Amino acid sequence: MREVREVGNWWGERGLGYYLYIPPSKREEIRQKFPDEMEQKKQLISHWINTDPLASRRRLIWALDRIEETKMADSIRSYAEPLTDDSLTPHTLLPAVSSVGQFWRRDLDEWGLLEVLDVPYSVMDDIRASPSHPTEEEKRIAGLQYYLQTLPGASWEDIAGVLWFLEEHTALEEVRQHLQPTYDPSLTPSNMRAALDTLPADKWEGFGRGLHVPQSKLDQIESQFTSDEERRDEIIRIYHTQHPHPTWERVSNALYICGVAFDDQQFHNVLDRLQSMFPTGRNKAKKIYEEEMKRGITERLITKVTMVGTAGSGKSTSLETLTGEEPLAEGERESTPLLKRPVQTEVVFVEGKEARWRKKTADEKKQYIARILRARAQKLGQPATQPPTVVREKHNSPKAAESAASPQKSSPAATEETKASATASSTAATASGDQSSDTAPEVTVESLLESSEVEEEFISLINVPSHSLETVFTETCVYIVDSGGQPEFVDAMTVFLGQTSACILVIDLSQPLDHRPNIGYYRRGRAVSKPYRSTRTNEENLKLSMRTMHTFVSKTKGDPLKLLFLGTHRDKLHKCLSETVGDKNKRLK
């Protein structure tokens, strides 16, 4: 929600709601039901996330580009969901589509490739006019780059479907070489007819366009069959037998878009029925996980990082910056809870060659894992029937944590690891080596997952590991504990240090070390308690935290906990007249 709160055009005829494919009737219903403007925006975004099969940051970026909110789109683009197919790049895609007659936008009655791929006209015009792309080849590469970086369905399969629609048969044969074989025994004409038998027959043509059925075939169907029911059934047959990569997801998305285009609730009713019979989108992510995890073990390398610092020092803002999010404005300050929820654990996946941190919600996490497993399943064919498997978790030792805590470097393999079996009964993680039970830090995987709001049903899919099973894939993630800055947290900090690989100590550079900071509690930028002066100075708070950590980690075998000092509020250094940053460094040594 924070990402788009400053968008100006939410409700207009071509506003954000329109380009998020929210029906006009639903937009009007939200505006009538909720008088508060901010609540209206929250409800609109919530409806979109919960109903659109392709809801994602990529879709949001595309919508923002459509309403020419370019600056906001660019701020989100840096942490949009990445493609999982390394073979799909502008330089591999351009030769495959070089034979396409109309590359950009329609000329008379001929559709353009990028136009059908949903690249906005304004983006195409900017690329073609930019002096940064002097040659036609460079312009085309830039256009394909936008598609791959932004559009939620970007894939070889999506491109193949568009080429089928455009009847660009030469290019389609080139792209077919990159397609993975589809195996979905449930995707049959009879099952499709059963799922779609309540689809309004008179809307068959719009539904066919949603499935990317070529216009020539739609014209042929109209002349060949007399009843709308027969035409609808022929659409289903052609899609199943002639589309280069038919999927339930495409059918689901076509139903959703038709429901919006016609503002017809019947389409959404059919979509709900389809998803109950044959899972698609988010529902299918769980199904894929459930089926494909029968193959073997998922290994997860975990680095646990704890943020420590006084209230208002900038811990949460620093965390948002590290994960590529837009920090809260100063007037929207929120205190990290202590009593209601002692820690806020965020699941952050380390992705790409640059090992950037990307925060994922529980739902995004399931889809992320499912995408990887689905790609693997398509290569191997039908899932094998094997005993259920586990996520085998490896926790980084402190020695490995220093570079893992930096989003600029890849996390090295752990030198000392603790392995945990993620089970429904919460098996505790025990350290490898000779640690005794009274000194080994103990943590349950369920508690980590619970704090990141992963569904219990999802956790229950994971059972006791079998070392005879193969590794399905390996992922790297970071659990970040964003602590409260109140004195009560410092007193109870040992409770939250279990399995911590690195501790980031956040220091407000605008305050002297001998200053006693004001402690306050804030909600939505407003103080909810009377601020009071801390009994300890910044330096005393820092030393107390370090003594607490030293007492804890000194009883644990292995490398010491890594400490990273992070200075904040550099834009307010002028307020600290009594000492410089260099003076602070000398005192802290």
List its salient traits.
589 residues; alpha/beta; Death Domain, Fas; 4 domains; 9-stranded mixed β-sheet; two-stranded antiparallel ribbon; 13 strands; elongated
Q: How would you name the CATH homologous superfamily of the largest domain?
A: P-loop containing nucleotide triphosphate hydrolases
Number of domains: 4
Overall mean pLDDT stands at 71
Question: What assembly state would you assign to the polypeptide chains in this entry?
Answer: single chain
Number of helices: 26
Radius of gyration: 27 Å
Structural class computed from helices and strand pairing: alpha/beta
Helix content: 40-55%
Major sheet description: 9 strands, mixed
| Overall outline | elongated
Strand content: 5-15%
Total beta-strand segments? 13
CATH class of the largest domain: Alpha Beta
InterPro entries: DEATH-like_dom_sf, Death_dom, P-loop_NTPase
Region (Disordered): 312-335, 379-444
GO biological process, one term: signal transduction
Domain Death: 14-80, 189-255
Task: Summarize the structure in words.
Residues 398-444 have a biased composition (Low complexity). It comes from Geodia barretti (Barrett's horny sponge). InterPro entries: DEATH-like_dom_sf (IPR011029), Death_dom (IPR000488), P-loop_NTPase (IPR027417). Residues 14-80, 189-255 form the Death domain. Residues 312-335, 379-444 are annotated as: Disordered. It is a single chain. The chain has 589 residues and is α/β, with parallel strands linked by helices. The chain folds into 4 domains: 2-77, Death Domain, Fas; 90-176, Death Domain, Fas (Orthogonal Bundle), CATH 1.10.533; 189-278, Death Domain, Fas; 291-588, P-loop containing nucleotide triphosphate hydrolases (Rossmann fold). Helix content is 43%, strand content 12%. It is built from 26 helices and 13 strands. It has helices spanning 16-19, 24-33, 37-51, 57-66, 70-77, 90-96, 113-116, 121-129, 136-150, 156-166, 169-176, 189-195, 204-210, 215-224, 228-242, 248-261, 265-277, 281-292, 315-322, 362-380, 398-404, 445-451, 456-459, 487-491, 538-553, 581-588, and strands at 296-308, 343-351, 356-359, 391-395, 418-421, 430-431, 470-483, 502-508, 518-519, 522-523, 526-527, 532-533, 562-568. Strands 1, 2, 3, 4, 5, 6, 7, 8 and 13 form a 9-stranded mixed beta sheet that branches. β5 and β6 form a beta hairpin. α4 runs antiparallel to α5 and α10 (156-166) packs antiparallel against α11. The protein is elongated. The two termini are 42 Å apart. Residues 339-345, 380-393 and 397-468 have low confidence and may be disordered.
